[in-house]
Amino acid sequence: MVQQPRPGARPSVAEVLRERYARRLPDTLEALTGPEHGLVDLPLHIAWSGLRTYDLDQPRLRMSLYRTVLAEGQRDDITRFLNRDLLLAQWPTMRTMISRPVREVWETAFPELERWASSTA
Predict the structure, then answer these.
(1) Is 58 in contact with 105 (CB distance < 8 Å)?
(2) pLDDT digit string (tens) for 50-93?
(3) Taking a C-beta distance cutoff of 8 angstroms, is the pair 17, 1 a contact?
(4) Which residues contact 37 (CB under 8 A, 6 or more apart)?
(5) How far apart are the first and last CA of the chain?
(6) Are 113 and 91 in contact (CB under 8 A)?
(7) For residues 37-60, b (16+ Cβ closer than 10 Å) or e, as one string?
């Protein structure tokens, strides 16, 4: 049973985060047309501290870039920097390393992510 919020009640932090991430989603996974190889420089509004340049050919750096963009990027950033095939390939591992609100929003919008993760486990 889904609990309905009381009228006038403030949403929980998790609800606010899920709504924020849901507004950033692309319409389809095919909209993720980012690069598959090479160096990627993230803008300051995504990576304001620490590493900003990522080598997609190094799995750990690629995973870090994807986690950062999923958490901090806006819709245009997500479609610009993420690649559908790389996201699918990394999802079984990455889904355990991202926040629950991000994972829930993406898997609800794109059930193939959860099915892909289950089939490769």
Answers:
(1) no
(2) 899 999 999 999 999 999 999 999 999 999 999 999 999 999 99
(3) no
(4) 56, 57
(5) 29
(6) yes
(7) eeebebeeebbeeeeeebebeeee
The C-alpha atoms of residue 103 and residue 86 are separated, in whole angstroms, by 16
Ordered DSSP codes for 1-36: -PPPPPTTPPPPHHHHHHHHHHHT--SSGGG-B--S
Q: Are 63 and 89 in contact (CB under 8 A)?
A: no
- Encoded tokens for 55: 């080598």
Query: CA 90: distance to chain centroid?
Result: 11
For 16, the token pair is 């606010």
pTM score of the predicted model:
0.85
How far, in Å, are 19, 23, 42, 52 from residue 36 at the CA level? 29, 25, 15, 17
Q: Which ranges constitute the DSSP H helices of the chain?
A: 13-23, 59-72, 75-81, 84-94, 100-109, 111-120
R_g of the chain computed on alpha carbons: 15
